[in-house]
Amino acid sequence: QLQLVESGGGLVQPGGSLRLSCAASGFTLDNSAIGWFRQAPGKEREGVSCINNLGGSTDYAESVKGRFTVSRDNAKNTVYLQMNSLKPEDTAVYFCAVRYRYCSSLEDEYDSWGQGTQVTVSS
To answer: Please, what is the average pLDDT of the chain?
Structure first.
């Protein structure tokens, strides 16, 4: 059974860092692109970042460029989102999602989603 599990969320002060993990089970990530999305209270879900199947291509939302870094470890079947210089506006539930090979900004093009992990940036 294809499953994604996010972890690593929590409460952090502005300017702090967190590293989110997206662990896959039931399939290998070798041929998969992983997208990171987030949804803040009262707002629509938005794309944050994506990494393609080979890891050579990554995308970032303008709001996180220079602060967030996506990476993957296919041996561990896990994708990471390193978040630095966090801001209160980064507060949201973060989701990872999988699709075949290439990144997409369209949520409907992802085949499976994790349950999400809460990130709260507050002093």
So the answer is: 95
Q: Round to whole Å and give the CA distance between 93 and 21.
A: 13
**Has residue 59 got a pLDDT over 80?**
yes
- Exposure string for 77-97, b = 16+ CB within 10 A, e = fewer: bbbbbebeebeeebbbbbbbb
Closest C-alpha among 121, 122, 114, 123 to residue 37: 114
Residue 62, token pair as written in the block: 């303008």
Q: Among candidates 3, 2, 8, which has minimal Cα distance to 94?
A: 8
Question: Of residues 44 and 53, which shows the higher confidence score?
Answer: 44
Cα(64)–Cα(28) distance, rounded to whole angstroms? 27
- Report the C-alpha gap between 39 and 51 in whole angstroms: 19
Tokens of 45: 């879900």
